[in-house]
């Protein structure tokens, strides 16, 4: 059964990549490239998966270079390009003067950050996007998330009743996907399914939402419970008109029932250990935050203003120039790039919030918020590349005619 689902997953990838190349969906191909690693891991393809992702980005570049129509036409793109470029210039200068510049981690960090975050973001901002391309991206994510959720739930069923009685929560995934990255991916799908596009399919929205929710909770990640569900609910409130109040209340009721039933079938101790904010992992993260922040505060004036240099974050935790980090990119940026670097980074967040104040917010905006919140609890600057990519994606979306059309439909 799993082999059949894997085959369908791969077919979905090939189909959407083929359509994307044929229609020259430059932005869409970049967005898909960020998710290919998860999908390929789900089907058991671990070797060269990053090469596949990079190849798709470079295909997008070739399509951009060969594009005959008008691409870069809006002034807002300049703002996005400027903010990304200024941060990267400061990041590069910090790397050049960093004591970790020649270390393996320093070299790896500058290379990975450039390839996986900066380059794709700039490529998106130099292009354009239409409603067909956004729908194509939505379809790819939803179909992929459906098949991956199916694998997770099947694995849970196969594992038997022992997992229900265990006082340790056994995390489930698809293939060798990191449960944290799995929950982020399913979280994006859960947000997308709440969009106005599916407002006339309330029954199916509830069914698919339950499906994604259960698979996400089975991953054992707190992200689904504390970030994704509140964001999805808030998005649904903001994106649907007042006539949908009854449907909204029913949707909330369905979520409450599903979460209650899910938690009730497991051992209470296992649920507390896994999902409580007072669990061991949560306390460990807080300890890491404190160590790195205290190390930053204890530095001299220069390190407080411009940081200690790219690749030095491991030092704040008592290590050398290795990939050890506090799982909070605000603290990581503050330690490595100082107050100036953090200010340049936060300008992106403030810009997105400001330009969306009087506009209808799409799932792209809420996905950006999700990735930003996740970056405060998990991963480092390199592994949270989606913050930069979805910043660029938001600039492109709000700069297009799609956002205006959506606003008019909801008035």
UniProtKB/TrEMBL annotation:
<dbReference type="GO" id="GO:0016874">
    <property type="term" value="F:ligase activity"/>
</dbReference>
<feature type="transmembrane region" description="Helical">
    <location>
        <begin position="333"/>
        <end position="357"/>
    </location>
</feature>
<feature type="transmembrane region" description="Helical">
    <location>
        <begin position="110"/>
        <end position="127"/>
    </location>
</feature>
<protein>
    <submittedName>
        <fullName>O-antigen ligase</fullName>
    </submittedName>
</protein>
<feature type="transmembrane region" description="Helical">
    <location>
        <begin position="139"/>
        <end position="158"/>
    </location>
</feature>
<feature type="transmembrane region" description="Helical">
    <location>
        <begin position="51"/>
        <end position="69"/>
    </location>
</feature>
<feature type="transmembrane region" description="Helical">
    <location>
        <begin position="202"/>
        <end position="233"/>
    </location>
</feature>
<feature type="transmembrane region" description="Helical">
    <location>
        <begin position="363"/>
        <end position="382"/>
    </location>
</feature>
<keyword id="KW-0472">Membrane</keyword>
<feature type="transmembrane region" description="Helical">
    <location>
        <begin position="25"/>
        <end position="45"/>
    </location>
</feature>
<dbReference type="GO" id="GO:0016020">
    <property type="term" value="C:membrane"/>
</dbReference>
<keyword id="KW-0436">Ligase</keyword>
<keyword id="KW-1133">Transmembrane helix</keyword>
<dbReference type="InterPro" id="IPR007016">
    <property type="entry name" value="O-antigen_ligase-rel_domated"/>
</dbReference>
<dbReference type="Pfam" id="PF04932">
    <property type="entry name" value="Wzy_C"/>
</dbReference>
<feature type="transmembrane region" description="Helical">
    <location>
        <begin position="76"/>
        <end position="98"/>
    </location>
</feature>
<keyword id="KW-0812">Transmembrane</keyword>
<feature type="transmembrane region" description="Helical">
    <location>
        <begin position="245"/>
        <end position="266"/>
    </location>
</feature>
<feature type="domain" description="O-antigen ligase-related">
    <location>
        <begin position="208"/>
        <end position="346"/>
    </location>
</feature>
């Amino acid at each position: 059964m799993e082999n059949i689902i894997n085959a369908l997953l791969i077919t979905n990838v090939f189909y959407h990549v083929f359509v994307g190349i044929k229609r020259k969906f430059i932005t869409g191909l970049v967005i898909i490239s960020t998710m290919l690693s998860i999908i390929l891991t789900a089907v058991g393809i671990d070797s060269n998966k990053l090469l596949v992702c990079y190849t798709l980005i470079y295909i997008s570049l070739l399509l951009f270079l060969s594009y005959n129509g008008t691409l870069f036409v809006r002034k807002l793109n300049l703002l996005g390009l400027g903010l990304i470029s200024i941060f990267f210039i400061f990041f590069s200068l910090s790397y050049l003067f960093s004591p970790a510049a020649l270390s393996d981690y320093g070299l790896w960090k500058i290379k990975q950050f450039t390839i996986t975050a900066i380059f794709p973001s700039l490529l998106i901002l130099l292009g354009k996007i239409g409603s067909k391309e956004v729908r194509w991206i939505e379809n790819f994510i939803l179909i992929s998330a459906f098949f991956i959720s199916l694998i997770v739930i099947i694995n849970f069923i196969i594992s038997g009743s022992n997992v229900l009685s265990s006082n340790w929560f056994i995390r489930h995934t698809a293939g060798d996907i990191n449960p944290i990255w799995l929950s982020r991916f399913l979280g994006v799908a859960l947000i997308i399914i709440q969009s106005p596009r599916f407002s006339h399919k309330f029954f199916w929205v509830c069914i698919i939402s339950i499906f994604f929710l259960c698979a996400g909770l089975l991953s054992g990640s707190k992200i689904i419970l504390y970030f994704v569900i509140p964001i999805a609910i808030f998005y649904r409130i903001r994106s649907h008109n007042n006539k949908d109040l009854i449907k909204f209340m029913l949707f909330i009721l369905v979520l409450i029932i599903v979460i209650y039933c899910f938690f009730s079938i497991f051992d209470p101790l296992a649920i507390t250990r896994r999902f409580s904010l007072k669990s061991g992992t949560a306390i460990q993260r807080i300890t890491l935050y404190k160590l790195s922040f205290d190390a930053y505060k204890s530095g001299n004036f220069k390190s407080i203003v411009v940081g200690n240099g790219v690749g030095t974050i491991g030092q704040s935790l008592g290590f050398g120039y290795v990939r050890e980090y506090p799982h909070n990119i605000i603290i990581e940026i503050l330690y490595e790039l100082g107050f100036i670097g953090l200010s340049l980074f936060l300008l992106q967040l403030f810009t997105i919030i400001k330009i969306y104040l009087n506009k209808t917010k799409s799932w792209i905006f809420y996905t950006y918020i999700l990735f930003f919140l996740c970056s405060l609890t998990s991963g480092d600057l390199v592994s949270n590349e989606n913050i930069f990519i979805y910043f660029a994606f938001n600039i492109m979306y709000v700069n297009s005619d799609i956002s205006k059309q959506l606003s008019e439909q909801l008035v």
